[in-house]
């Protein structure tokens, strides 16, 4: 696939299975290599400012402003059970239903500059804006790399996965901010699995709706 084709065919596909009857985990250890490759490609995104050195963890010392924390299929089901233990399944329970169907969950976070104000996670300055932008670019790289490998992916805000308690349970440093929970889904699944395309796909305009040429005089 050319870059142009990959960008044009990339699309969201969400899979939802019954949380009380999740899909069996079929991907073996080898799938981790594929996910590692996708995240390595994500990490080729541009970034302007290095992550604040003091905010880097002992194990993930990179100067990049983003971090990726991945759970394999088994990890997704363990997390699902933890969420069910905390709150019984409701009739429409998106995150749980997706965890019941996913092969992998990748939590993409960014590291803010230390905020001067207590209780505020980040200061709305240009540096932080650019950390977020760079992390967004990295996640888009990941989605495009997944598309090129014919892997279904969905970029979610994370819903209940955003809760500090939950991020702590997953061992994610408390100052990291979740920008995307990327669900990786199988290509083959039983008919009982519900599928859904992404929001906004019918709201996309044409080039003239979001671009103009500026002609200074
Ligand atoms: C930062 C970010 C967060 C998103 N969070 C959600 C979400 O929580 N729920 C949702 O339905 N779509 C969410 N989306 C949108 C989908 O990921 C998807 O891109 C969109 O529905 C358009 O579909 P497409 O990917 O097929 O073009 C988010 C997108 C971005 C960039």
Explain what this protein looks like in three dimensions:
The chain is α+β, with helices and mostly antiparallel strands. It has a single domain (3-210), classed as NADH Oxidase. The chain has seven helices and six strands; from the N terminus they run αβαβααβαβαββα. The strands form two sheets. It has a four-stranded antiparallel sheet with strand order 2-3-5-4. Strands 1-6 form a two-stranded antiparallel sheet. Helix 2 (30-42) crosses helix 5 (126-148). The protein starts with a helix and ends in a 7-residue tail after the last helix. The mean pLDDT is 96. Flavin mononucleotide binds next to strand 4. Flavin mononucleotide is lined by residues 11-12, 154-157, 180, 198-201.
């Amino acid at each position: 696939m050319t870059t142009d084709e990959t960008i044009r065919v990339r699309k969201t596909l969400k899979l939802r299975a019954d949380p009380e009857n999740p899909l069996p985990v079929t991907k073996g250890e080898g799938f981790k290599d594929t996910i590692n490759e996708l995240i390595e490609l994500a990490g080729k995104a541009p970034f302007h400012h290095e992550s604040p050195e003091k905010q880097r963890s002992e194990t993930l010392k990179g100067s990049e402003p983003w971090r990726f924390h991945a759970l394999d299929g088994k990890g997704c089901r363990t997390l699902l059970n933890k969420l069910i233990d905390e709150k019984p399944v409701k009739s429409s329970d998106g995150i749980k239903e997706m965890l019941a169907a996913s092969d992998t969950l990748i939590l993409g976070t960014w590291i803010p500059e230390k905020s001067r104000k207590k209780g505020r996670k980040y200061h709305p300055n240009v540096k932080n804006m650019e950390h977020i932008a760079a992390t967004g670019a990295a996640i888009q790289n990941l989605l495009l790399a997944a598309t090129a490998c014919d892997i279904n992916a969905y970029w979610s805000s994370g819903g209940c996965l955003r809760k500090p308690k939950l991020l702590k349970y997953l061992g994610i440093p408390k100052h990291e901010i979740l920008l995307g929970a990327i669900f990786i889904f199988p290509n083959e699944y039983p008919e009982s699995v519900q599928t859904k395309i992404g929001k906004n796909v019918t709201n996309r305009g044409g080039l003239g709706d979001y671009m103009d040429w500026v002609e200074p005089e």
